[in-house]
Amino acid sequence: MLFTITGRHTEITESIKNHAEEKTAKLPRFYDSINQIEVIIEGGGSGGGSIKVEIIARAEHSKIFVVTQTGQDVYMCIDSAVHRLEGQLRKKKEKERDNKYSGGTKPE
User: Is the pLDDT confidence value at 48 over 80?
Assistant: First the structure.
C-alpha cells in the first residue's frame, strides 16, 4: 500500500507523519482493495487558525473515498477523519457483500 503525506502552509513533523501512517495502516482491514492512501494537512497560516486534514483512499476499479476534517488539533483531526473513512469503507463493503448474493430463488 502506497502512503503519502503532504503539508500545505504547514510543516509535517516526524511524529505527525508516524501518527497518520499508523492510523491509516488499519484501513485495509475494512476494505481489502485499498492500494493508495494520501493525507493532506493544510495549516491555518501564521494566525494559528484551524487545520484541515483530508484523507483520500484509492482502491481498485477507480474507487475513491475522500474525507475532510477541520479543527484546532492535527492529531484529533487525523483520528476523526480516519474514523469517518472507516465508516465509509465499512458501508461500501457491506453494500458489495449484500448485492453479491441477491439473485436467489423467490420463496412461494
Answer: no
